[in-house]
Fold each of these.
Amino acid sequence: MGSRDLLPITWKRDASEEEYERARVGRVFNHRRPDRYPVAIVEAEKEAHILQAVQLAQEKNLRVSVRSGGHSWAAWSVRDNSILIDLGNYKQIQLDEKTGIVAVSPSTTGRMLNSMLREKGLLFPGGHCPDVGLGGFLLQGGMGWVCRGWGWACQYVKAIDVVTADGQQLRCDEQQNEDLFWAARGAGPGFPAIITRFYLQTKPLPTHIRSSTYVFSKKHFKIALDWVRSIAEAYDRDTELVCVGLSLPDYEDSVVLVNLTTFKKSDDDAITALQIAEDSVPSGYLEKNFARSTSLQQEYVQQAQANPERHRYCSDNAYIDNNSDVASVLEEAFTTLPSRKSFALWFAMAPSSRRPLPEMALSMQSDHYLAIYTIWETAEDDSRCQRWTRNVMSKIEPYSVGQYLGDSDFQVRNTKYWGEEQGKKLMQIREKWNPEGRVCGYLDSGDQSGVKGLRNRL
């Protein structure tokens, strides 16, 4: 294992304030910094460092927390009375070209992975934001590219390697330690061990990607959303459909944008897929751009621009009841944005949401996913922007059937995240593998949930 003297660790008691803050929050994407202070930060460079950190936490009777990409809005990795294991320097991508299975470290981002896979004619449907680490993304379920047609990214996980709370190094798949494998696909930040490696099944790379956009005035929000909803369930399964309330440079007021991006093997197939929307779009749009050629790399650039670095964020989300008047429920979220960088997003989930899910922790979905990303620049706007988010979500909540873990903050709102039986099973697995709460669980208000986990109730 090597000498512990070689462990890359920063102790709060010994480091300068500058060095400690760099290690504590330097890789936290949200610049609304948390008021929580780990005892130490281990910037792991190899699997042995992760094991050493867990053993050190056992000796010191501390908890361990984990940071993959640092993109969680609530900064779940930054915890009191803990050793934070930061995986940013632990990098691994190894492809088995015969099986198409790639082994990756949790800090690997979607852009990093797909940049390598592109040379092999392969793709992994990771996160839309280019710098999101696969670790947190996959644990939440993974609402990745074309989730409505290709399924959840966690369905492509074939195995994981973990370090457990008591320091065991295990392989988990459908044949061995299958309860941890079950939990890894949807447990989110309450997974009761530390994943050191994912084994992911890749897909053939669609070589022709095209996108159509339609911009509407926000007063026509209901028309725009009702239209895209009406075509979503039966739409081509290689096409992503989204409706966004946002601000664009050419418009003084915020607008509503409908975007369709299709991933195909030929230009003809891509244009044919997008033609369905082109032929049915209602009149009254402000502008449109039909079937422009794009690439995954270009899409990553646009996503990065929509989620700027060095900003302050809060986020919330809901799966909307299929039987509700979705446009009316979401209208305020899309048309009263509190800043020009904020946006609200409706994601079409059908037909994937109508298909039975495999045996895994992920078990919450509906046809309609709403996420609010409130973005601002200065601390002076913290109260106003967070209050807007809470007020809007309080009106949407009665029409929600649950929530996606990825865009949640359990300190602000608790609801339902899994099916009834799946939620109970997950909490039992957590108690079995992490009985002392060594691995930090769900960060609720006051960090009180510990081994018990979340209530999983609407």
Amino acid sequence: MRPIKGSTKAVKRAVSKVRQFSFVSLRDLLVASGPTLLAVVAVAVLAYLWVDPAPPRRLTMATGQFNSAYQEFGRQYASLLARDEIALTLQPSLGSHENLQRLLDGKADIAFVQSGSTEDAQAAQAGLVSLGSLFTEPVWLFLRESAKVTHFTDLKGKRINLGPEGTGVPRLFRQVLDANGIESNELKIGALENTPATMALLAGTIDGLVFSSAPEAPLIQMLLQTPGIKLFNFSQADAYTRRLPFLTHVVLPRGIVDLGRDIPAQDYHLIAPTATLVAREDLHPALVGLLVKSAGEIHGKAGWFQQQGQFPSPKYTEIPVAREAARYYRDGPPFMQRYMRFWLANLFERLWVVAVALAALLIPLSKIVPPIYVWRVRSRVYRWYGELRKVEQALEAIAPEEREAARAGLMQRLDGIEDSVNHISIPLAYAEELYRLRSHINFVRERVRGTIDQHGVATASLAK
């Protein structure tokens, strides 16, 4: 059966009437709350972008020389950060001092820096923070056996390579020389980089070289197993740590390199600063936690000179530890990052800032919107009271003997007002206001007709 057109139109008119006389006027509600909603959206956007901006997706790390442990660890950081879609650009460098300078110049966001390279006051003043110490970097003094160096003072007159001045080794080793009462000019100090220096040592053009690096460095692994090359034993390591507090005493155990070949053939006592991951203080807080987490995966295992879980650590660094890093070491990763991927967790954590901003704005604004809404709805009714008052004033301004002739025009005005009022769309909750207006229109109509006075008293009774 085909639907009846007339019945369909009737249904539509009924639905339209229900919409017109609903409990809440959506149009009035939107107009009343529109400025508030716009203010809320603006504050939310500002809070999202300015108060707690999204972390950058690109970072730059200053590492170290070719074939150094810094370079190898930099690759591992890049691999881990790539899982969270963060591109880490590695910048090879000469070492700690050059890395510090790149941080200060804004050319790098994070860098490996050796302890003892700076002081805490200088680092804080320069706007640098530590994300934690990562591993010990023993001072490896490799010598040719033909140099016949047994005691440290035997180095006088020897050709010893300390590396370029941009590394941390020259400054560190000069402090060791001072502790032994040896002047730098009593040695023939070279400034070759690690790989050329190693070739020079093997070729016999120098007597020794100094590294300060983790044992994972390929050159150190090679030299520990090279015949004719021996490692200097710092038998007074404890005394060095008392004189130079940023140093620690570590032991290279016998056979750790190769148990089968018994390499090394004895325990070696070494002095060691620690490698620290240093960042600019404006590094995004979310990235601080992510970097500390990555450091735990890379450096948290047991090694030649460390126990399981000893590193990374907020200790062993003279640079102030970043507040977010200290919180991570104390409490672990943020709650949401334990169960979500980095970017999703970061999004929810940032939304808390937006929620706080919205709450601070919505609480006072929620007291403003309802009165505005009520005023808008009632103003549709109240404006017609002004028209009624004009009719009454016109009636009162007419002389009594002329009112009969003016009644027709006033009645026509009242009919127009009533017709307009009958087409007012108003929520049912305020229907009482509408019906009261209609009764007042009738009241004024009776006055115009002359059946009642301005007090509503019938004129016939007054005449009696």
Amino acid sequence: MNQNNQQNTISILAFFMQRLFQSASLKRWFMVLLFLGGTATIEARQKPNMIVYLSDDLGYLDVSVYGASVVKTPILQQLSQEGMTFDNAFVASPSCAPSRAALLTGLMPAKNGAEVNHAFPAPDIPYLIGQLKDNGYSVFAFGKVAHYGGNEKCGFDFHHDEQVNLYENISGYFDSTKVEGPVCIFVGDRRPHVWWTEKMDYLPKEVDLPPYFIDTEPTREHRARYYTDVSGMDSEMGQVLDYFDNMLGSNTLTLFTSDHGAQWPFGKWNLYDAGIRTPLIVKWPTKIQAGSRTAAMVSWVDIMPTLLEASESAVPEGLDGKSFMEVLKGNTSTFRKEIFTTHTGDGNFNVYPMRSIRDERYKLIINLAPNAYHTNHSDILRKDGAGAFWDSWDAQAVQDPLAAAVVQHYFIRPAVEFYDLSNDPNEQHNLATNAAYQPRIAKMKAQLTEWMNAQGDEQKLYKQPYYFPGPKPNGETIKERQNEH
């Protein structure tokens, strides 16, 4: 086409465009289409990327954000300064598999079917990952997100199950993979799960111990190793979050939490706050006020519904969890009135089921097998880097009545425990037989019973407990029981 013909064609097109826009109705439709197209693009861009960072067996008091004075967690401190810190976040169950199943389904253990450790939800129970994918999200998992071997069941677009070298695995994958659309990335660090590292970046004589521990040299050495793993987790998380900052940009919601307390006496496997209360920090620039803090009580089953609302994904009906987005926005300082938690057991090592209800001040614990020993892997196997310090506790108890009382309290529990948390945050003074509290105890018992019935909780014993006055279980006892099956 020569130059004159090109000019003629342009002139003709210009003439028809001018006549088109002289029609008011056509002009309005054209502008509407432009607006709608632009709005759709803006809305798509506004969907936040999301990072869910999970620690494993981290006690909420073992983080500087929650008052720890010895162990150092500068990355979590920075995250807290940039987001909202929850002072009253609780897991559904203080063992890995039931806790993570509750997170990923929005249902409590009795409803989703993962009541005992090393269990998974029933086959007909959907993971909420599908809701994000239906809304256009690509969903990834690195490390321990579901319980061991469970990432494949959740419907992630990609999962890398190796639990070490998280930063290298993450950066290596995304450096070589083109990712489309908004993403939700789950990262699960196994630390500070046992076995704890042999390194001691902290001096045993300088670590602090909870007031209900027995102060022995092996306990302090194990505590130093545990703190080293806590700081190691925090440090690598800094590398990962820096990488994601560069990759994802500012419209990113970052959530950090832990699946339950640490495997110390009265922590993991127990319904004391040291077992069920967890760190929870959420950052979302321009959406969440930096440096804010809330006393609102939330549960792990609430996390996924909150992420679904943040991403404008569909939230299924019938969940136990509910979104706490209004708390994140600063529109309310309250959420749940009660927190319910359950623990059922872990194979042959841990057969001591219990249930609890907690409000802002009081906690009621029902031990379903009070005529049996409370016991688990830690005190049974007593392995280096896990529970080897138990030998020193037994030795101390022989000569020290106070130490003997701690050991007795650990192994022998009453049927009912009731604590005034405002005056007894360490839950050391059982008020279950105190006459002044009987009306409140009766009310909370009724609430707990009603909740268990609604959950379909059969209070089932999956294994036979270790009844006293028989011998406490040990490695040989466990082997004998395993051989029987």
